[in-house]
Amino acid sequence: MNRPYTQPMGARIVQIDHISAGKAWLDRIERSGSPAGRRARLFTLLDGLAAIAFAAGLAFGVDAIAGHRALAPWLALTVAAMAIRGLLARLAAAAGAQAAAEAKTGVRAELTLSIFGKNTFGGPRRPTGEAVTALVEGVEALDGHVARFLPARLSAAVLPLLMIAVAAIASPICAVILLATLVPFIVAMVLAGTAAAAESRAQFLALERLSGLFLDRVRALPVVLAFQAEAPTTAALKRSASELAERTIRVLRVAFISSAALEFFAALSVALVAVYCGFNLLRLLPFPVPETLDLKRAFFVLALAPEVYAPMRRLAAAYHDRQAAQAASASLSTFVAPEARPAATPLAKAPTIRFEGVTVRYPDADAPAVEIFSLTAEAGTITALVGPSGAGKSSLLNLLLDLAPLTGGRILADSAAPSPADIAWAGQSPLILPASIADNIALARRDATRAEIEAAAGAVGLVLDRPGGLDFMLDERGGGLSGGERRRLSLARALLKPAPILLLDEPTANLDAASEAALLPAIRAAAQGRTTLIATHSEAVAAVADQVVRL
């Protein structure tokens, strides 16, 4: 017998904790608002004052026509209020978009440091799919929250009561009607928002699961094809995609139902005011009231009634942005904030690098990758770290780049901790961007001149006999470059960066003897005038070094 799935109590408690942490994280983002966000809220509030002026211009204009008085002043007021409202709406939208862009940039930078920075080793490693979803979809979910919801929330809290107070000057009874119908309007918003919040969280979790599953299957595509598992893989992706589509439809369903309920109460309020004003003007009310309206006052209240609910409508329209941001923040808040670091003073010359009792232990590892390791690399020399795979050569280089956890000892460049900004690095698998060869060489120094790029390519022996030379366009896989050319490109990139420390990780791996011998002069050229550490299996590369350390 199939039973419906029930979430374990422990999972529900963790989910509640994540939601609370997400709200606190989102509140922190709101409190750190930019001047652009404050301008957006100010423009939205001023729009409400312009709406009151617009209603007054209409009311006095109609009264002037009925009384055969001068119309021009009130017509000018009406037109000016319309123009000002249009201008304020444009300024509020522009300021909101700027505030959202600034908030997203800050959050994305913080998440990037959390994912790739040193704090990553303080906890479990993030799956790539989850990290990508957070950096792209999660951060983008903040856009509408900052740009539209926050200005709308302030105006919805202030302007309806202000307008009802102004309406009470003309007609206290109409003000009471507006205030009475505002209560169920707010209750409907709260109920709709609660339902939308749960559906938005479920949709974001479904998106995270689909992103992670898709990335995992793409990475394992050769294995999937080798074992003829295309059908089960396709079925799993289809199920995840169908779940996401179903969750999205649920979010839209709640949004449409809530919009219908809100529009009903707004229309009911305007209709009640219109009926009351009409019967009062005709003196046909079936009950006594303590006021007698004239055309001017009745038309003013009637023109102002829709404006009372306009801020609430804007808030309701932007409320799904709030729920999307809250759903994303429950995940974004779990990323550890990066540690604040004092600004490092750039090194003026090649330093002496000292490893003093260094230990590297990765999370969940049975044994340390490196244990109580000490080494002194003199300034301007080349040190080769030689040893079998798994001996810890790459881990020692990664320590200098903050890509490995330093769990014991310390590393000094002269008398201070080394900064990644002072390091040029060439790894085993150099990053290739879909750009020209020249742009790839200048990746670590975007302001390099063409002559400097050509000099770096020539110094490492990167000879390009293909069409366009350095302007030859590469794809993201580096198509068109041999293994030796990729490594020369990486060395040219490191040579172009004016850094006093050079790290080379297996610079001749997977190259034949002839290609390796041809690359050795390039390594010497790149290491000139720098303190260089090379992790290698090759005795030929080790022969280039001034000092060889065997692990």
What would you say this structure looks like, in words?
- The protein has 551 residues and is an alpha/beta fold.
- The protein has helices at residues 9-31, 35-66, 72-116, 128-140, 142-170, 172-219, 221-226, 230-281, 295-332, 393-400, 437-441, 450-459, 483-496, 513-527, 539-542; strands at 353-360, 370-377, 382-386, 406-413, 423-426, 501-505, 531-536, 547-550.
- The chain has a 5-stranded parallel β-sheet, sandwiched between helices.
- Strand 6 (501-505), helix 14 (513-527) and strand 7 (531-536) form a beta-alpha-beta unit.
- The longest helix is centred in the middle third of the chain and has 52 residues, at 230-281.
- Residues 1-16 and 119-123 have low confidence and may be disordered.
What characteristics describe this protein?
551 residues, alpha/beta, five-stranded parallel beta sheet, three-stranded antiparallel beta sheet, 8 strands, disordered N terminus
Task: Please provide a brief summary of the model.
It is built from 15 helices and eight strands. With 551 residues, it is an alpha/beta fold.
* Mean pLDDT over all positions: 80
The radius of gyration over CA amounts to: 33 Å
Span between termini? 60 Å
Count of runs of 4 or more consecutive helical residues: 15
Class derived from helix and strand content? alpha/beta
**Percentage of residues in helical conformation:** 55-70%
Say what oligomer this is: single chain
Compute the number of strand runs. 8
Reported for the largest beta sheet, the result is: 5 strands, parallel
Topology:
Blueprint: H1 9-31, H2 35-66, H3 72-116, H4 128-140, H5 142-170, H6 172-219, H7 221-226, H8 230-281, H9 295-332, E1 353-360, E2 370-377, E3 382-386, H10 393-400, E4 406-413, E5 423-426, H11 437-441, H12 450-459, H13 483-496, E6 501-505, H14 513-527, E7 531-536, H15 539-542, E8 547-550
